[in-house]
Amino acid sequence: MAALVAMALAAPMLAACISDVRRRIIPDWTVAAISIVGLAQSMASGTGADAALGGMLGLSAGALAALFGAWGWGDAKLLGAAGMVTGVSAMPSLILGSAAAGGMLAAALLALRAPVRARRLVLPSGAPRWLRAEQTRLRRAPSVPYGLAIVAGLLFALPWGA
Question: If 84 and its partner were Cys, which of 5, 25, 55, 76 is the partner (CB 3.0–4.6 Å)?
Answer without folding.
Answer: 55
